[in-house]
Fold each of these.
Amino acid sequence: MKRIIITVVSTIIVVSIILLSNYIYLSSFIDVKVYKVRKARIISSVSSNGRVEEIDREEIHVETPARINKVMVDVGDQVRAGQELIELELGDLELQLKQARTRLEIEKLNYVNMLNGSNTRLIGEGEYVQEVWNEYPEYAGNTAEVYQKRIEIAQLEVEKLEQKLKQQPRILKSPIDGIVTAVNVRKGSITNSLEPVITISNVKNLQVVANVSEYYISKIKEGQKVEIRGEAFKNNCYNGIVKKISPIAKQLITGQNSETIVEIFVDVLNEDSELKPGYSAEIKIITEEKGDALLIPYEAITQDEDNQDMVYVVRNNRAYKRKIVTGAELETEIEVVKGIKEGEKVILNPSKEIRSGTKVRAFLDN
């Protein structure tokens, strides 16, 4: 009986020693959550808002005020290059030219009469000579040169009006194939040089003009793919490509706020009749795309004494410091381009107790 008691006590002591040893051993470990480094396909993008516009749009202006005699098209009409659009009444301009030519002949006749000593003069000519003297004092007292100056002025006026008539055809024609998107005149109205009389657009060749913040413009490159969506065409996603980036930045003022932005121009590759000029659009520019990027959560990254990005990798129940180089930034994860391998386990939210060589007990989080 005594031997049995001794055996039991001995067993209890041995078990206690083992348990205590295990406890002491395990208590020297720090429990950590780890993430297994994985490969995945990533897409980095920059989003912005813009507006659908025509790439080919021609605004037809009339530089000299003229009366509209006939409007031959309406908004929405399909037109061909060379098709007649508007007929101008150039009678006023032609009358001005006729009067200018008459005045030139009179000035020449006055000069001849002056040279011949004739007393034939136009009414009010003395006042006109005085006006020329006032405007060109270098001719004061020299009547012959004044008459020559009058001829020169009249000749310039004739040439100016002739040039206007030459540059302004009576019939305005479409310079391109397209659709009439604006008509700003009607029969009998007078043209305004600051406003186009008519606008022709090629609605089969569209682009999106968007503003990108200066903070992201360095990521944008010509040739990058673009996804185009919008409220007016919810069921469609159009494909595009960055065609051009403005060489200058500008200030965009909204209310009390201002932002420095750069305009970009995106060609639409698969437009259809549902996409119309003037629509607002939401674009997503694909700045980077990889099929086998190494990803870890942001919580795994910390900085060393040199402020360099690093992680703790767990191997054989110990933590080891590893410097890393990061790449594309995603919503919850970040790409690591150098420093770790697929399948390695990195510690999430490492505490200050963790050092290189620290014993850890890892619990997989993914």
Amino acid sequence: WSVDAAGATKTGVVAGSAGAGSGSEGAGGVLGERLDISMRRIQTLRYGENPDQEAAFYGPERPVGISALEQHHGKELSYNNILDLDGALLSLAPFALSPRPAVAIIKHTTPCGLGVGESLARAYRRALATDPLSAFGSVVAVNRPVDAQAADLMSQLFIECLVAPGYDDDAMATLTGKKNIRILSFPDTDPSAFLSAHG
């Protein structure tokens, strides 16, 4: 769910199961005719889809999905960063419980790399090999904590945002040496928290 400065909203999909309601939903059954959602402003964004537009990021009171990300380093996020982070985490969600490291690379909401490997470094190399030109200025999501070997490889490319479940000390030292990267982490959560239907 997002709201731009003009008040336009994006829609979402809600599902319920029969018998889940209290009986007070009216003729609409479990799912009523209206759904009012209260959101809190998480942050004012650097700009909207274009630099001349204002934007803010709103999320539910209990952080979930993108609103639960924690930023450790870098400039504040832009609207486009949030769209790409969403795409990266959605691309990575099927691998959340995979026994193997996985990497998703997203640019302008489009996957340009996906790799799985025996190590995070190997998975990153495979993802990057898919389309190394488009990966410049991308968002990278990984399903394992970033180690020093993977961080060394990632630091060789301009990455807008990197999101992972964590970072070891050597990896964080390497990555924070890059001024323009935004380093984020996601909580240990049910992978379905990043799955939704967008409209």
